[in-house]
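Q: I have three molecules that I believe assemble together. Could you output C-alpha cells for the complex as a whole instead of separate predictions?
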Amino acid sequence: MLEQFEQLLSQNDIFNLATLMHYWGGFVTTIQLVFLSLVIGAVIALPLGILRTSKNPWISKPIWIYVYIFRGTPLIVQLFLIYYGTAQIEGIKGTWLWENILAEAFYPCLIAFVLNTAAYTTEIIRGAIENTSKGEIEAAKAYGMSWAVRMRRVILPSAFRRALPAYANEVIFMLHASAIASVVTIVDLTGAARDIYSRYYAPFDAFLFVAAIYLCITFTLIFTFRHIENKVLAHLKPLSH
Amino acid sequence: MLDLQGYGPSILGGALLTVEVAILSLLLAVFLGLLGGLAKISSNPILNGIATVYTTLIRGVPDLVLMMLIFFGGQMMMNNLSDWLYTKFEVDVFFNVNEFTAGVITIGFIFGAYMAETFRGAFQSVELGQIEAGKAYGMTPWQIFSRIMFPQMMRHALPGIGNNWLVLLKTTALVSVIGLSDMVRLASEAAKATHQPFLFLLPVIFGFLLMTALSEWGLKMLERKYSAGVVKG
Amino acid sequence: MKKLIIAVSCMLAFSAGSIQAKDWKEVRIAVDVPYEPFEFKAPDGSLTGFEVDLGNAVCAEIKAKCEWIPQAWDGIIPGLLARKYDAIMSSMSITEERAKKVLFSEGYYNTPSAWFGKKGMGLDVASKEALTGKKIGVQRGTLQDNYVTDKFGDVVEVKRYTTADDLVLDLTGGRLDAVFLDFPVGEKTILNNDDFETLGDNIPVGDGIGVAFRKRDQELANKFNKALKKLKDDGTYDKIMKKYFAYDIKI
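A: Yes, here they are, computed for all three components at once.
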C-alpha cells in the first residue's frame, strides 16, 4: 500500500515528495504563527479588556485609541509598517533587538499579528464583561466583595463563557489572516502554494490543495469550539420542550 | 506639510481605486447575499444545499487564497476556454481577467456569503404574521417580498451589512497583492523606493480610519431612517 | 436596481474582449518592471531600458506600433496565454519547461548570474557547508530561484520575493545574507551601495534570453527573429547595448 502511494507520488509532477514536504513546512509555520499570535494576544488582551471597562478616562481612552486603530485598518498595512518600518529605524542595526528578533521575517510578522488580535480580543472581553447581568454584580456587591474579588470570582468566569462564540470567530479570522504572512516572504501554507504555482504554473493544484487544508483546519476549530461551548455554556442552553 | 516626494497624486488616485473596488464589491455582495439568504430560507433542498456549500466554503478558506485562486486560476481557465474555442470553432476571442475585475469578483463573492447569513437572519426576524397577512390579501410572492419583507428586513439587516462593509473595506487592501494599483500598493511601492515606510504608510492608515469613521457615521444615519416608526422595546 | 445594472455593465466593460489583429500592426509587449537596466521606469514615469529600446527598434523594423505593458513576473506567462499582450520581452530565459507553454524567439542576449552580499563576509558560495543556514534571496519563479533551490535548497533558507526590488530592499535592509541575481541587475541596483560586493565568480545560468510568444503566433515570432537578426548585423543592437553595458551580452 505504501509502495503504491510512493509510486503515485514519484510519477506525479506536482504532488511529489519534495513539494509535499514544502506544503508540510508551510503547514507547520501557519500553525505556529496562528497559535503563538492567539496565545500572546490573549494574554495581552485580558488586562487590556479589563482596564478598558475602567471609569477612568485616562486609562480607558488610550486603550480605546489602540483598539480603534488596529481594528479600523487592514492587517496587511499594519504588517508592512512593522516589517519595513523596523528595518528603517535609525541605528537599529547591530542592536540585540535587531540581530535576534527583527531581522528574521517571522518575528515582525508575529508582532503585527499579536497587536491585531489583541485589539480584537480586547473588544471581545470588554463586551463580555459589560454584558454581565446586573443581578450578578449587585449580588456580588451585596456580599461585600471588592472590585478585585468581584472580577475574579463573578464577572470574569461568566465573561469568558459569554465571549466564547465571538472568540471562536476571532480564532478562525486569525487563521485566515495568517495567509497574509506570505506577502513578506514567510513560507506558510499560502507561501508554499505560491512557490509551487510559480515553479510549475499550476494554480489550481497549488491553491485548491491549500484551500482544502485551510478548510480542514477551520472545521476542526469550529468543531472543537462547539464542543467546548456545549460543555461550558451548557447552563445557558435553552430548555428543550 | 507632508512632502510626499511627488507620489501624492498617484496615491490619491489609488485611494479612489480602493473606494471603487469596495463599492462595486459591495453591490455584488449584496446581490449574492440576497440570493443566498433567500436560498437558505427556501424549502427547496437543492437551493438550500447550494447556499450552505457556498457559505461554508467561503468561511473556511482565507480571502487571500481565494483571490489568488480566482486571479491566477481564473486566467488559466479562460486561456483553456479560449484555446478550446479556437481549436473547435476557429473563434479567436479573448477574455481578459484583469486585476480589477478579479478583485471585485473575489471580494464580492466572499462577502456575498457573509451577507447571505446576515440576510437570512434578517428575513427570519420579520414577523410571520406580516407575511401571512400579505398572503391573506392575495399578494403574489414578489409583492410580498418587495412590499412587506424587504422594507422591514432592512432594519434588521443593517447592522450586519454595516459590519460586513467595514470588513470589506479593509479586505480591499489585499488586491494590492495581485497587482492592482490601489492605495496600499502604490504607497508601499513608494515606501520601498524611497526607504521611508512611515512617510507613506501612515497616511494610508489615516485614510482607512477616515473611511471607517465616515462609514460608521453613514450607517448610523441609515439605521435611523430605517427605524422610523419602530418602538424600541 | 439601476445602480446594480450600471455596476454590472461597468464590470463587463472592464473585461471586454476583442477579435485578434492578425496583421500585427500593433504589438503589445509585457515587461516586469523594475529590472534595471533591462526595463525600468524613468523619473518621468515612462518605460526605458535595454529591452525596451531593443524592442522599440524591432517594432520599427517590422513596421508595427509597440505598446509596453507592465506585468508582475508571477503572472507573466498566464497573461500572455490570456491574450493580455502578444509578447514577453522581460529577460525571460529560454528553458525547456517554459518552451512547453510558449514559443521562443532566437536568443538575443545572455548574461551570467552572480551572488551579492555584504562586503567582508567572505562567504564561499561554491561550498554547501559555508552556505548552510544562511538566508538567500531570489526572485520567485526565475531561473535563479530554480538554481538555488535545486543546488542548496536543502541546507539554506530560500527567501522568495515577488519583485527584484523587494529582494534588493531586504538585502540592503539586512534581512538576507546573500542574494543570487542576474549580474547586470545586481550591478545596477546593489553595487551602487558601497557596503555590498559580488561573491565568487559569475555563474552562467540558462541558455540565453528570448522573446516569448503564444504557440500559435509563429508568424509574429518569425517577424521578430528576422528583425532581431537584422539589428544584430547592422550595428543597431551594438549601439543600444553600449548605452547600457560596458561588456558584451550579445548572442
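A: One point stands out. The first helix of chain A runs from residue 2 to 11.
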